[in-house]
Sequence to fold (1159 residues):
Amino acid sequence: MSNTDREDEQMREEKTTFGFWVYLMTDCMLFAGLFATYAVLRNNTYGGPSGFELFNQKFVLTETLILLTSSFICGLVVISARKKDMDRLVRYLAITGLLGVIFLGMEIYEFRSLINEGNSWATSAFLSSFFVLVGTHGLHVFVGIVWMLLLQWQLLFKGFKPIVLTRVKLFGMFWHFLDVVWIFIFTFVYLLGGLKL
Amino acid sequence: MWSKIRVGMVAILIGLIAIVSYRYLSGQTIALLQPKGLIAEKERDLIYLATVLMLIVVIPVFFMAFWFPKRYNENSKNAEYLPDWDSNKALEAIWWGVPIAIIGVIAIVTWKSTHELDPFKPLAAANRQQRIQVVAMEWKWLFIYPDEGIVTVNHVLVPKDVPVSFEITSDAPMNSFWIPQLSGQIYAMSGMSTKLHVLANSTGKYEGLSANISGYGFSDMRFIAEVVDKNSYNDWVNNINISSSKFGENEYQQLSIPSVANTPQYFSLSQNDLYSRIVAKYNDPTMIDGLKLQLRSSNFHNHAEDK
Amino acid sequence: MLGLLTNFAHLSGKTDPVILGAQIALIGGIIAVALVITILGRWRWLWYEWLTSLNPKRIGVMYLIVAFLMLLRGAVDAFMLRLQQTIGSGGGEGFLDANHFQQVFTAHGTLMIFFVAMGLMFGIINLILPLQIGSRDVAFPFLNSLSFWLYLVGVGIINTHLIVGGEFAATGWLAYPPLSGIEYSPGPGVDYWIWSVQIAGIGSLLSGVNFFTTILKLRRKGMTLMRMPIFAWSVLGSMTLVLFTFPILTVALALLALDRTFAMHFFTSSFGGNPMMYINLIWAWGHPEVYILILPAFGIFSEIVATFSKKRLFGYTSMVWAIIAITFLSYIVWLHHFFTMGAGANVNAFFGIATMVIAIPTGVKVFNWLFTMYKGRVRMSQSMIWFIGFLFTFTLGGMTGVILSIPPADFQLHNSLFLVAHFHNMVIGGVVFGYMAGLTYWFPKMFGFKLHEGLGKAAAWSWIIGFLVAFIPIYMLGLMGGTRRFEKFDPSLGYHPLFVVAGIGVVIIGIGVVLQVTQLIYSILNNKKLADKTGDPWDGRTLEWSVSSPAPEYNFARLDEVNYRDEYWERKKTPAADLVKYKDIEIPKGSPIGMFIGIFAYLFAMAVIWHIAWIAALSIVIISAFVVARLNDDDIVKTIKASQIEKIESSYGGM
Fold:
């Protein structure tokens, strides 16, 4: 690798990372829009059930702990990538993804039981905004899991190419971001929603 | 020589346009500039004031935009040329300062007038306030006079020099209730009630309309806003009460079938809380006893295709 | 299996001469273009040089072409609207019924903002911005191509109903619920609108990320922020707004779509929904949107007035701060679009005052432009005619804007024809004049030859005069109590003569458009005579003029450090004669994946509009597969050899 090549590589990484930060900020705006909508509509139950009656906080707390753990392990992923420790990297990635899958499974279970009890998104504005806010986060988690699988595959076949390492870093940012968004959802939707009444 | 002819021609053209416009406009109703109500008068004055204040900046800008490219044209031989002159703190201070001052004045006026002319604020006047409830329907206006017990469609009569309080809702897409010569407009929204206060100070028939698109019959949602003196007003109310059929929830349900360009209709009100029920049917139907009003079903056909 | 398409026959059963005309024009046009390409044997060339290109200069040209085609459609719409209102105010029935009239103005507004103004803006930015900041490329070339294709998908969706029949939204260009909800608009029209805007909007958002990063990370060494050309600054402001507001548009449209498709209740009038929330969200995007469009126009004028006055831009620092102030302020004024909702005096007064404060930095910019001409050597080129026209019309529009920003005055003027005149004043007098000026100014840099001056000046004058004749009567009609979006007015109101005058104005603008088309054709035919061999036809000041016209694929052969604001102007004063050897340059290879994703995004939208779940799901899977394929592709750059660069550079003989 010549000097200019290294400079080019550094530039590429720098602009990609910066661009990804910018993207994350737009995603923040997207969630801000959904949070604002939820805040406006959360009491509009139209005679239907409120969050207080629907949310199972122990269940959601478990979900939260699982996602937090996966975020912690995702931190180990980034560290192993920096150390170029392939075994650990792949293993930690797998655990991160697995916890993500469990989280998503629990969320789907929660949604299903709500709908089966007759409280679907068509019941009231409150439930519409609840399903869409939480569901959008879930969709992000799903994308993260797919991304993680793809990273595993690239790591196995391409090894420590600079571009792959950059992507591991970006995946870490993305996953932590989802964690932060979830903390907000947990606090504003489930905790405050549970306090009401 | 040629340039003088050109200037002359432009001047003649502008003069002609001015004369023709004046002759045309003097025969027309310029609704916003010829108000017949207290609020509309104050709103017009604001438009005038803002225009005059803005002209303090606009006129010099027009002058410079015309003069500078002429004076410093590349063909004008003796014009000064300073290619590197790119800042002058004093000049820049002027054109930050003057707009700040002007906008400052307009801002103060805005703050005061927005509070004074808040449509929700009742008007102080010697006479007792007249209540009228307004429902925007597809595509007509319903006026309920709860105190007089009458109901009208597409015709609202108000007494002169009496403060009128309109309560406005919609049983249709969002509309905007507007009688330009009496006051500004306010939205009519379903499940909600907005307010508008008006004081008419001159008798006559004025144009009323919806100012927000609400579907197929939108441009036909016009109504007559008529201002009369107190005696004629009382006669009018009594006439309707004696001679008209009853109007309650059932009749309302009939009327709410979409229709275009309705001629004025008059009824006597049989259900005093009709207005609040129309508002409430969008909110929580379980809270009202025996509500017969129905929500519009979502598989309603597109009216344009029925036609 | 086929969702709502099962009712297809019912929808295409209507034959309206207006729709038929549109169908013939559209389908005929597509066939004609395809035939010409086949006859010339240019398919390969089209594919490799254009459709799959990741070169921002090529992508920019494609944006411009599409935007111009849409301008023609939008102009036909405008003409129909004017004609209908002219007839309809004189007591006639006209040729458009209420529903059709409403569809036409909805399409007109949507087209002009999303597909004309945004298209022209991204076209110019793609072509000029990297050159101006001395960069060889944008930050993310593939993303750029994807943005373009998503924009084109939006264009495709909004025009689809013309071909397959059926209706477009009849709700106004921002589709307020509950009118746009399923209970009042049960047909697919609003869905066409939603998905057209949604997909194009995502494209714009990606472009925002791209250009924001490009400006902040890819500037030439030595070009500090305060040495950056004002156009680049204005684009930075504009892209900042894109980043902060387009996600809100995405949310608003998605929720409206969910209401309509999955019976949710965000914006329904019952079941606890809140239509006012939509209006807030859509304007929290919609107001900054007009500043997204106007800021680059400000930047263009700043470049033009300095170049054609042969003088430094006056008050550069003021200009930068004005841009920053406008960027910030435009984000906190959205409520002025609905003072009449009854938010209360404190809220209304706050937003009214915030709005009028924008007049201050804007006014400062006007004075700085004026004093750039002062003691300069002003050359009245066609770009300058647009600029002078802009100064007059935009100042007028600014004045009416301040009037509208006073809430009690707005109670009278809201939704009136006065408002219609005001925003056309800003959009035509500001945005259109700005982009036209920019296109004439940078045309030689884009295509290698100049546009004919005389025809260009005549076109500009037609636009300016036509604009005044068309819109001053509309201001008057607003004062007379005329409301927008009426297809007919009672003849007793006496609006007819003013509508006739406005119609004449539209014809004059039409003449301007014809002159522009003539100018373009004439200039293409005489491109040898009008060729720009120097790369610097106007004695320019910034880096884009330091390379050949059109710029080579790699933009700059050498990346010399920047030392001044008007870098190229200073370099011309002391030409350096040092010979540095050229190096190989890596540039991105073309890729068709952006186009493929676009095709399936289009299919996805159609499937959602027509409720065909399996196609929608399949499209998503295929799009994901393409994304994966792109991410997995390591062979994405090609190298231009130093010897080749030397050949290209010496054939042009620039510095």
